[in-house]
Predict the structure of Glucose-1-phosphate adenylyltransferase.
Amino acid sequence: MDAVSTPRFVSRLTRDTLALILAGGRGSRLKQLTLWRAKPAVPFGGKFRIIDFPLSNCLNSGIRRVGVLTQYKAHSLLQHLQRGWSFLRGEFGEFVELLPAQQRIESSWYAGTADAIYQNLDIIRSHHPEYVLILAGDHIYKMDYGPMIAQHVENSADMTVGCLEVDLETATAFGVMTVDEEGRVLGFDEKPGQPTHLPGDPGKALASMGIYVFNTDFLFEQLIKDADKPYSSHDFGHDIIPDIISKYRVFSYPFRDAESGRQAYWRDVGTVDAFWATNLELIGVTPELNLYDKDWPIWTYQEQMPPAKFVFDDDDRRGMAVDSMVSGGCVISGAQVRHSLLFSNVRVDSFSILEHAVVLPDVLVERSCRIRNAVIDKGCCIPEGTVIGEDHEADAERFHITPGGVVLVTPEMLGQELHHVR
């Protein structure tokens, strides 16, 4: 085994790496779920927020210098980061640093992914990293970034792009790469109408995950060059990568499971349908995403709450949950919860039935409600006798119906005021 692949060498590489998480996006495809919060702040998995996954990946990979770039409606995201991610010790050179759009260079907001990094060049320079790892803040996955950085060094690469194998229909939503046998990137098309398939596999394409490793000096050079181009959109996928692949050493890094070698778990929860389905996947007996993995914990901030409670045991009024995940602070009072995921501090009152529901924190479901195939946003109070998910025509008059038939319910749709930080 050579030095590059040893854990000790990877550890040294991660210690010399600064991670930058792009967390400023609105996530408009999530509809009203991002009306008052940025997509990375959307709750996920019963007790987490989406941003916790890339942050936990950094921590578990040994990267303890992280900047989080924020922009769109960032209050709840900033509050979550301050409460849950302020435990790193600055005197040891560890930090999660907040980098909101603050017009440091010009009087404009972040104009694109590359511009967001460019506007913080002075801050990045002050940390003297050898490598810069750029991450999206809105995907659900567990990934050790150490081997990717190690491969980057081993290839003497200027830039390395994390990638997934996806079907051709899905590939139209990604940056699609063409690579040679050594994994060197020969072509890059951002969201192509006709994606280039993998050699030998006409049904698959190689898609960018939006995860990049750069040599720091090279990154600075390319960002400064891009900033001077008047017609650039200042985006890594549209501008930086296509411009450098023919002149510099750009390599792909396939994201695979370390044990099986197969495609690793990765989800883009960018639509309400995907958000609903990905949450409910966690309920399975052996879900692909194991939240109970002690070797790779997902860190977060969660308010201290009592255990979940189930009360009443009458034949017509039994508090119960089957094939479900129920978080702390929940009270299931004479109601039935089936194949559903309840976040913290949810109360479901007597004679109500929830099936295939994702219920975000601080929700009250009053008596005799029936809710199916729904996402209930934080802070909703579902009035007594409400029926959701059985009659789409009636639901569409008040709520949002997704192409997959999932009903999204928010406090505004119920005519209720917001009483909680989103």
User: Anything to note?
Assistant: The chain has two domains: 7-282, 309-414. Residues 7-282 form a domain with the Spore Coat Polysaccharide Biosynthesis Protein SpsA; Chain A fold (CATH 3.90.550.10). Residues 1-6 have pLDDT under 50 and may be disordered.
